[in-house]
Amino acid sequence: MAAIDTKTIIAEIINAHGGEKIWSGIDWIEAEISAWGFLFKAKHIPVLKHLTVRASTKKPHFMFVDYPEQGQTGELIWDEEVRILGVNGEVLQSRSNPRDSFKGLRRILWWDFLDFIYFGGYATWNYLVTPFIFSREGFVFKNIRTLHTADGDLLCFDATFPDDLPTHCRTQTFYFDENRLLRRLDYTAEVVGSWAHAAHFCNEYRDFAGLKMPTHRRVRPMLFNRPLSSPTLVGIEIHDVSLQ
Predict the structure, then answer these.
(1) pLDDT one digit per residue (tens) for the chain, 244 residues
(2) Is residue 244 part of a domain?
(3) How far apart are the first and last CA of the chain?
(4) Which among 166, 162, 156 has a CA at the least distance from the CA of 199?
(5) Which residues contact 3 (CB under 8 A, 6 or more apart)?
(6) Into how many domains does the chain fold?
């Protein structure tokens, strides 16, 4: 498909989710979320219940408020560092180049809080800023096609992320409905393992001051390129969003 068609499609997708004008006026997204699922059990991490998070719209900077303890903040700064800040902003714990730490037996068996702040931080940041992130330079879109399903046709394409953005894997597949709303994305959660192929479903869209966002998300395993009905690897509910 010609480059001009790709640009048109991306523009239509961004407009469907609120438009570039609204997005360009936002510096931070603050959301109240809950998250749970098999991954939390497997890595011995407490589930999230009505936790406040903050995501920068300009760069991969993400914060878990009152996490892992009341008054503390779990913070992700690009792929460079994760840290836990105290009540007065003092650094209680930190880890540089956190993605490089996901090697060895310990991470297979369990994660510490810094591990989760990295994984949960970059993943949730990606979810909150997509599809507007597609306007960023460095993305490559290929294999634009239509998928016929029992629920209607879906527009699909493969998106390769720029190297400087922390994400599940460099190339992911995105699916949009007839209204150009994101309904699914497929990826490999490389931090979990090279085998961790997942389909991430997005539903129950709500309008937050003009920004349209799915509030009901479910991540399920993929086997031979087909999503399984269970288990739910990660479930996410977005209870509220404010734009800052």
Answers:
(1) 444 589 999 999 999 999 999 999 999 999 999 999 999 999 999 999 999 999 999 999 999 999 999 999 999 999 999 999 999 999 999 999 999 999 888 898 999 999 999 999 999 999 999 999 999 999 999 999 999 988 889 999 999 999 999 999 999 999 999 999 999 999 999 999 999 999 999 999 999 999 999 999 999 999 998 999 999 999 999 999 999 9
(2) no
(3) 37
(4) 156
(5) none
(6) 1
- The neighbour count for residue 129, using CB atoms within 10 Å, is 22
Element (H, E) at 46: none
Structure tokens that stand for 152 in this block? 């209607």
User: Which tokens in the block code for residue 127?
Assistant: 């979810």
Kindly state the helix (H) or strand (E) to which residue 131 belongs, with its residue range. none
Q: SS3 of 24, please?
A: helix
CATH number assigned to the domain comprising residue 161:
2.50.20
Q: Is residue 203 part of a domain?
A: yes
Distance CA 59, CA 77 (A): 9
Burial of 53 (0-12, 13-18, 19+ CB in 10 A): buried
- Asked, for residue 72, whether it belongs to a domain, the answer is yes
